[in-house]
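go over this record:
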Amino acid sequence: MFDVGFSELLVIGLVALIVIGPERLPRVARTLGILAGRLQRYVADVKADINREVELDELRKMKDSVQQAASGIENSVQSELNKTADELNAAANSAAMNSDVGAPTSPAGAEAPKVTEKTG
């Protein structure tokens, strides 16, 4: 971000020593260090929050795509099941119609024998 080398820091330190004075310079440097640390932590927290939001958004998109894929699979399976059920019903109806047309209601020679009791 800022390209500050050792020589620039040395110049800044000398100017601060002259302007602030040797008695207050350590206290000012400590305060600046604390503020810089707080600023770094704040920036790190903001970056972490942004990364979490981006990851959460990606997970939501992934969830939506998986749900759409699952719905598509469910619809295709359901349509295939309906198609197969319709074909089976048509075949069963066709078989029932064929058996009703030319077949007797009871099998040939399957009349129930008459039971007579012998007394005697």
Summary: The chain has a mean pLDDT of 85. The chain has two helices and no strands.
